[in-house]
From TrEMBL:
The lineage of its organism: Bacteria, Pseudomonadati, Pseudomonadota, Alphaproteobacteria, Sphingomonadales. This is Helix-turn-helix transcriptional regulator. Pfam families: GerE. The keyword Transcription regulation applies. Residues 46-111 form the HTH luxR-type domain. InterPro entries: Sig_transdc_resp-reg_C-effctor, Tscrpt_reg_LuxR_C, WH-like_DNA-bd_sf.
Length: 115
């Protein structure tokens, strides 16, 4: 098995586990802006910080979770790329993350589709 195949197998297993956790969570959702995220996807330590995010920060996080670059996010939200960076930094502070890499991982966990 090649390294790429091993990575793909790990990702498929993670997606399977997330689907199972989502199914077990049932009706438990966490409101995140205008979205409802299955409770099983939200790490316990981020529950209070997520509630403090603004509507625009949630939109930035959603696009980040979909794998969009800062320039794409700026274009989609009709804001400057610098404003996107400000939102990213504000989210890192509110969620007590060490940086944008951790935010990127959290955004993927929250918003990446499992299909």
């Amino acid at each position: 098995m090649t390294a790429d195949q091993e990575e793909e197998a790990r990702l498929r297993e993670l997606m399977r586990l997330l689907r199972q956790a989502d199914a077990r969570a049932g009706e438990e959702d966490v409101p995140l802006g205008e979205y409802r995220i299955p409770r099983s996807r939200v790490p316990e330590r981020h529950l209070t910080g997520i509630g403090a995010l603004t509507k625009t920060e949630v939109a930035v996080m959603r696009f980040l979770g979909w794998g969009r670059a800062n320039a794409d996010i700026a274009t989609l939200l009709v804001i400057s790329e610098n404003t996107v960076r400000v939102h990213l930094n504000n989210m890192c502070r509110k969620l007590e993350l060490d940086g944008v890499r951790e935010l990127n991982a959290l955004a993927g966990l929250l918003f990446h589709p499992l299909t």
